[in-house]
Design goal:
- The protein is mostly helical.
- It is elongated and about 85 Å long.
- The two termini are 14 Å apart.
Length: 327
C-alpha cells in the first residue's frame, strides 16, 4: 500500500485519538487499550514500509502520548478492587451481552434436548445421571426424603467441596473455549442435558415441587455456569473472528476478556456453595414463601448485575469517547 493511501485510510482514526489525548478526555480504560493496540499495529506497519517518513514520526509521537495516558490512568485508581466490581466490569461486560444471549440459547437448547429425551425414553435419565444416582434417588423417595442427598456431610465440608467443584466447572467452560469455542459449547450442552434430564425425572415422578430445594442454590450455580460459558465463547470467537486485528492479538484480547468474565463469577459461586452447604439441606422444611423468595432474589441478583446494571451504567456514562473508526 502506498503511504498516501495508508494515511488516507487511517487519518480520521488518528486525529480522533489525538484530540481525545490533547483535550484530556476521560476514556474508558478498555477503549483506551483497544485504540492503543490499533495505533501500535499501524506504527509497526509504518516502521516496516515507511521507515523514513513523517508518518512514522507522527505515529511514534502519538503512541508515546497514548502510553503516558495509559500509565497515568492506572495511577489514578485509588481502589482497583471496588472500581472493578462496581464500574469497570459492568461497563466492560455490556459489549458481550449478545454473546451471553447466544450462550444462554445454546444452554437452553441442551436443557430441552435432555428434557424431551427423558420424557420419551425411561432409560435416558440413567444414561445421563447414572444408575447409582437414579437408584439412590428412588430409594430416598421411598423413604420420604427425595432430597436427602443434600443433607449428607457437614455444612462446611459441603460448602468448600461444592464451591471448589463449581469453580472447576467454570474454569473448564472457559478453558475449553480455546478449542475454537467447540469445547465450551460441549460443556454447556453436557450441563444443559444433565439439568433437563434431572428436572424431567422428578416431573415424571410427580415431585416437581421438590426441585425448588435444588433451585435454592441452583439458580446462581446454573446461571454462572452459563456466564462462564460466555467467557469461553469470547475467547474462542476472538480467534475465529479476529476482525481488524491479527489472530494472535485478537486471541490475546479475547483470552484476557474471557478471564475477566470468569473472575467475576467467583463470588457468585462462593454464594451458591454457601447456600447449598448451609441452606439447601433445610429446603424441604423451609416455608415455600421463604424458599421462593431466595430463588427469586438469587435470579434478580444475577440478572441485575450482568444485564440490567451494565445497561444502566452504560446509559449513565456521559463521558464522551472519541469517535474512532477501525480499519
Amino acid at each position: 500500500m502506498r503511504e498516501a493511501s495508508f494515511v488516507k485510510q487511517n487519518k480520521e482514526k488518528w486525529i480522533g485519538f489525538e484530540k481525545a489525548l490533547h483535550n484530556n478526555m476521560k476514556i474508558n480504560p478498555d477503549d483506551l487499550a483497544s485504540y492503543y493496540i490499533q495505533l501500535t499495529n499501524d506504527l509497526s506497519y509504518a516502521q516496516t514500509y515507511y521507515p523514513d517518513s513523517k508518518t512514522l514520526l507522527y505515529l511514534n509521537s502519538l503512541a508515546s502520548q497514548a502510553h503516558q495516558k495509559i500509565y497515568r490512568t492506572k495511577k489514578e485508581s485509588k481502589n482497583k478492587i471496588v472500581a472493578f466490581w462496581k464500574y469497570e466490569f459492568p461497563l466492560f461486560f455490556k459489549q458481550y451481552h449478545k454473546t451471553l444471549l447466544y450462550t444462554f440459547l445454546f444452554f437452553m437448547t441442551a436443557v430441552s434436548i435432555g428434557s424431551i429425551s427423558t420424557l420419551n425414553d425411561d432409560s435416558f435419565v440413567r444414561l445421563i445421571l447414572g444408575d447409582g444416582y437414579v437408584n439412590m434417588t428412588l430409594e430416598n423417595i421411598e423413604n420420604g426424603e427425595p432430597m436427602a442427598v443434600y443433607k449428607s456431610g457437614s455444612s462446611i465440608g459441603s460448602f468448600l467441596g461444592i464451591t471448589i467443584n463449581n469453580i472447576r466447572v467454570a474454569i473448564l467452560a472457559f478453558a475449553f473455549g480455546v478449542i475454537f469455542s467447540v469445547g465450551t459449547i460441549y460443556i454447556l450442552f453436557l450441563n444443559g442435558i444433565l439439568l433437563g434430564s434431572f428436572i424431567t425425572f422428578f416431573y415424571k415422578l410427580g415431585l416437581i415441587e421438590n426441585t425448588s430445594t435444588v433451585w435454592l442454590h441452583g439458580t446462581i450455580e446454573i446461571s454462572v455456569i452459563v456466564i462462564a460459558g460466555c467467557a469461553g465463547l469470547v475467547m474462542g470467537n476472538s480467534f475465529i473472528f479476529p476482525k481488524t486485528f491479527s489472530r494472535r492479538v485478537s486471541f490475546m484480547r479475547g483470552a484476557k476478556d474471557g478471564l475477566k468474565i470468569v473472575v467475576s463469577t467467583i463470588p457468585f459461586f462462593i454464594m451458591a456453595g454457601f447456600i447449598e452447604g448451609f441452606i439447601t439441606r433445610y429446603g424441604e422444611q423451609m416455608p415455600r414463601v421463604i424458599a421462593y423468595g431466595i430463588i427469586f432474589l438469587s435470579a434478580f441478583i444475577i440478572v441485575y448485575y450482568y444485564i440490567i446494571y451494565p445497561i444502566l451504567l452504560h446509559k449513565a456514562d456521559r463521558i464522551p469517547n472519541p469517535q474512532i473508526t477501525t480499519t
